[in-house]
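Structure ticket #2291
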Amino acid sequence: QVQLVESGGGLVQAGGSLRLSCAASGRFFSINAMAWYRQAPEKPRELVAAITSGGSTNYADSVKGRFTVSRDNAKNRVYLQMNSLKPEDTAVYYCNARINLSGPVSADCWGQGTQVTVSS
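Resolution: structure written out below.
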């Protein structure tokens, strides 16, 4: 089984920074891509940032220039550095990973989420 565990969430004032971390553990062949999603109350879950196994990144327009996603393949971790946080960034942030379990078999895995609250 594969588990994703997020950490680093918390309460921060607008303009502040947080760094989220997501660790993948379990038995798998490789991690193809990792991403961060977020879901605010009464809103659908949205993609925040993604990073491929090769390091290519993609960001939601709302976070471009403020957030940076990175990964440490040796540690099976993905990070989300969040700077210049805004109250609109308040949400539960979820780690997502497309994990190759064995050969062509892949699984879309989710973490439990970590709360990020940005106060005005």
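Closing remark: The mean pLDDT is 95.
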